Amino acid sequence: TRAREQWCAAGRNGSRGFKGWLVVAEVVTVLLKVAAAVICTVVHLWAQNKMAAWK
Q1: Rounded to whole angstroms, how far apart are CA atoms 21 and 15?
Q2: In sequence order, which residues have a C-beta less than 8 Å from that of residue 11 and are 6 or more positions away?
Q3: How many whole angstroms separate alpha carbon 36 and alpha carbon 18?
Q4: What are the alphabetically sorted keywords of the record (predicted)?
Q5: Fewest 10 Å CB contacts: which of 7, 22, 45, 53?
Q6: What is the torsion angle, in degrees rounded to the nearest 10, for the CA atoms of residue 12, residue 15, residue 19 and residue 20?
Q7: Would you call 9 helix, strand, or coil by DSSP?
Q8: Of residues 36, 10, 9, the one with CA closest to residue 21
Q9: 3-class SS at 24?
Q10: Roughly what angle, to the nearest 10 degrees, separates helices 16-54 and 2-12?
């Protein structure tokens, strides 16, 4: 298959072909961590406001 040939070629060329994917994966991971932190903070603050409103 075409895709498999490309993967094999990338493997023969060393990790050069995969470097781009590794960078993308790292960026995505960082973005997910940041997003998770933001969401947790927002939810935490929202929950605090809810509790304060209930009192």
Answers
A1: 10
A2: 17
A3: 27
A4: Membrane, Transmembrane, Transmembrane helix
A5: 53
A6: 10
A7: helix
A8: 10
A9: helix
A10: 100
Q: How many Å apart are CA 17 and CA 30, to the nearest integer?
A: 21
Judge whether 17 and 10 are in contact, CB under 8 Å: yes
Q: pTM, whole model, 2 decimals?
A: 0.52
Phi, psi of 33 (to 5 degrees): -65, -45
Q: What tokens appear for 16 in the block?
A: 């050069």
| Residue at token pair 């960026």 | 27
pLDDT for 7 equals 66
Query: What amino acid is encoded at 49 in this protein?
Result: N
Q: Which residue is listed with tokens 């070629």?
A: 9
